[in-house]
Amino acid sequence: MSADLGFLLLLPVLAAAAISDLRALRIPNLLSLIALALFALLAPFLPLDELAMRALIAGLCFAMCFALFALNMVGGGDAKLLPVMLLFVPARDLSAFMLALSLGMMLSLAAVMALQARPAAAGSRYRGISARGRFPMALAFLLAGLGEAGLILSRLA
Question: Is residue 3 within 8 Å of residue 46, measured between CB atoms?
Fold first, then answer.
């Protein structure tokens, strides 16, 4: 079994983050910690150069996300979960993952904006829908994760 298949372990965490973000516009710290713990279990099975590259990419992402958080452009949960998520992405897949993340953001944003435009949106129990001008980014993380999982699984065929 390839260590890349460990990415599949991240999908339930991403699904829980998406649900939480949609409901409350909040990604609990516990989910980022669970993802980090899962990666710690997988890390010994990665080649050292791959592990170093993933850590570098995640570290750079964290620095950028921290700056965006400080500027109030992204939420704290988003700023923590995305770098941890990148630890699971094989370095050779980074470009494809970023494309999947961009597509996921566009699809999620279009769906959320369409739902927010409905008259009933203001009364929605989902803050990701009722809070105009806010975006539950974990939906995009989940879509990107599903795309990456598909890419990894396609290599097995």
Answer: yes
